[in-house]
Amino acid sequence: MGIIRFLFCTFEFMKNLVLIIVLIFLVSSCGSKKSLIKKNLDQRLTSAFYENQFTGVLVIDANSKDTIYNLNDHKYFTPASNTKIFTLFTAIKTLPDQIPTLQYIDRNDTLYFEGTGDPSFLHPYLKDSTAFKFLKSKKNLVFATDNFMDTKFGPGWAWDDYQYYYSPERNAFPLYGNVVMIHKDTSLLVSPTYFKDSILQIRNTKNRKETSNLFFYPPNYADTLEIPFIINTLNTKAILEQALNKPILNRSKMPIGTKQTLPGIQADSLYVRMMHESDNFIAEQLLVLAASTLKDTLNSGLAREYILEHELNQLAQTPRWVDGSGLSRYNLFTPQNMVHVLNELFVLVPKERLYSIFPAGGSSGTLKNRFKGVDQPYIFAKSGSLSNNYCLSGYLLTKSGKTLIFSFMNNHYKNATSDERTQLELMLQTLRDNY
């Protein structure tokens, strides 16, 4: 019995010793990987290329939450369209699987309805017809117009962007993506046709007159122009009447009573377009939609305040968050902010769905021609760019099978943005190959 006990104790000792050696090896290996990554990224980020710009980085292991690399990760940056990551989180937290496309009260053969901010109604790319068919089926329509309690442009938006496709006005009941689409085939094709007599085929320094819905389309121009139109109650009513081919009455408020909600397009259709195409209009309207589900007032500020107070009150730094799209330079976020929300999404959303919403490097959306993997995508991330600013935040799959959450934020450079992307890609490849 003594020999058996001795052999058993010896076996247990050797087993524990092997386990300790393995753990030491793993810790040492992990430490050496981090050391190699730190050395490589330090060398790049202290090179002459980055000398006159401001850069912040945070990279963590998605499962262990260990910090792999950080630099200025607590400091504020202009995020540009990285802001849409916060908008995505807000939408997923507040909106149902089907977007609430309008609210209504059906009473005495009359349908009273109001907008929720849904951007999909007659949208040229989304092509959802739910609300259209619903309104078309009703005999008498009364449109309640005064539930939008926000500004048509976001704080800090560039005033001269009014003419460009990426800067449509915000409102309660968007139509056709709030842009006029003009294309020349054998004749001039205009959508919505309500504006067909407002197009001048002349060259002009602007696409639209600043103060009115007068649009300019250059002769011999071959491509489609998308130009935001000025929104008011009269033209919203007229465009809707023309689309439905029936008269509509207006009133300021809905009648007293219980409102019903009409479910519309699948929410992920909006999320994918927002993230893949960096669609500013959809981003802005998603915050309006979020507000409509929280309160009976359409104001995007309500949605931002709610999320920061109730869902993101553990952020290490309080961001300055003023719009849904990132068009404003007033926005200020840290790399820690971005990684925190990306981690919340990583925990909340199944991976297949999450990665389908984000652009994939070398494969889809705004990353289709950038950050390409060898056999398959290894980057699923949102880019953000304004003049002299480029940010990229998202998820990175390493060759060893690990998942990293990262945020690289670059502000105030005078290099070409293509060169910024090249330098960033080299660092992402270092992470992919060495962790």
TrEMBL record:
Keywords: Carboxypeptidase, Hydrolase, Protease. It comes from the Bacteria. The keyword tRNA processing does not apply. The keyword Protease applies. SUPFAM superfamilies: beta-lactamase/transpeptidase-like (SSF56601). GO terms for molecular function: carboxypeptidase activity. Belongs to the peptidase S13 family. This is D-alanyl-D-alanine carboxypeptidase / D-alanyl-D-alanine-endopeptidase (Penicillin-binding protein 4).
